[in-house]
């Protein structure tokens, strides 16, 4: 157990994690510049591996405080440095998991209670005879992640997997016409005799 803690909370491990973090955010900057903010979120910032990396950094920082006894008066400046990074990580975790991003338009002298979410949602509406089957799923649609979206719904009691076949072509045509593309709501219809039709 001591070998594991000494390895995990060592300065070498901390340096490796910081280098990986710097490489990740550097890569995300180039992705955002070339492919847009949504692509950077899909590939790096909202990816599970990036969250694990930040979690490991946080655990390593806390462990270093106790292993190296940074709470002593002689090491106060290093202790404050570590605590500052831990507070930043806690703040980013609160922003990531508890709060949400969006845009609220408020005219001068007016009040508003509506917000346009920053999240991208795909709404599916399947006409199954007299009834409609609906599904809503949050996803990041980007040119780098054309297979990021799929969903399962029941039609006539049978589970059906829904994969938009022409998502890549749709994104490509949109990116050719607009410099900044924002997806808010996409509606999809499943037509048994004609395949999949999209409307946006």
Would you write up a description of this structure?
There is one protein chain. With 200 residues, this protein is of the alpha+beta class. It has two domains: 2-100; 117-199, no CATH class. The protein is 47% helix and 21% strand. The protein has six helices and eight strands, in the order αααααββββββαββ. The protein has helices spanning 2-8, 11-35, 37-45, 48-67, 76-97, 167-177; strands at residues 102-103, 116-117, 121-128, 131-138, 151-155, 158-162, 185-191, 195-199. The strands form three sheets. Strands 4-3-7-8 form a four-stranded mixed β-sheet, with no helix packed on it. A hairpin with a 2-residue loop joins β5 (151-155) and β6 (158-162). α4 packs antiparallel against α5 (76-97). The longest helix has 25 residues, at 11-35. It is elongated, with a radius of gyration of 23 Å. The termini are far apart. 8% of the residues are buried.
Number of strands: 8
How far is the N terminus from the C terminus?
56 Å
- Reading the helices and strands in chain order gives HHHHHEEEEEEHEE
Structural class: alpha+beta
Comma- or semicolon-separated keywords:
two-stranded antiparallel ribbon, 2 domains, alpha+beta, disordered C terminus, 6 helices, 200 residues
Blueprint (SSEs and pairs):
Elements: H1 2-8, H2 11-35, H3 37-45, H4 48-67, H5 76-97, E1 102-103, E2 116-117, E3 121-128, E4 131-138, E5 151-155, E6 158-162, H6 167-177, E7 185-191, E8 195-199
Parallel strand pairs: 3-7
Antiparallel strand pairs: 1-2, 3-4, 5-6, 7-8
Helix pairs in contact: 2-3, 2-4, 4-5
């Amino acid at each position: 157990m001591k070998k594991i803690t000494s390895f995990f909370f060592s300065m070498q491990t901390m340096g490796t994690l910081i280098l990986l973090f710097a490489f990740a955010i550097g890569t995300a900057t180039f992705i955002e510049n070339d492919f847009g903010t949504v692509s950077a979120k899909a590939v790096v910032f909202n990816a599970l591996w990036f969250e694990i990396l930040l979690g490991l950094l946080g655990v390593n920082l806390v462990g270093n405080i106790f292993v190296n006894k940074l709470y002593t008066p002689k090491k106060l400046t290093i202790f404050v440095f570590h605590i500052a990074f831990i507070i930043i990580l806690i703040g980013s975790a609160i922003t990531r998991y508890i709060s949400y991003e969006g845009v609220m338009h408020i005219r001068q002298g007016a009040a508003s209670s509506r917000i346009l979410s920053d999240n991208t949602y795909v709404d599916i509406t399947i006409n199954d005879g007299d009834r409609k089957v609906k599904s809503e799923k949050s996803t990041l649609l980007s040119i780098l992640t054309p297979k990021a979206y799929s969903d399962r719904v029941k039609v006539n009691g049978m589970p059906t997997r829904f994969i938009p076949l022409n998502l890549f072509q749709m994104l490509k045509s949109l990116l050719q016409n607009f410099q900044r593309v924002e997806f808010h709501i996409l509606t999809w219809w499943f037509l048994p005799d004609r395949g999949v039709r999209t409307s946006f």
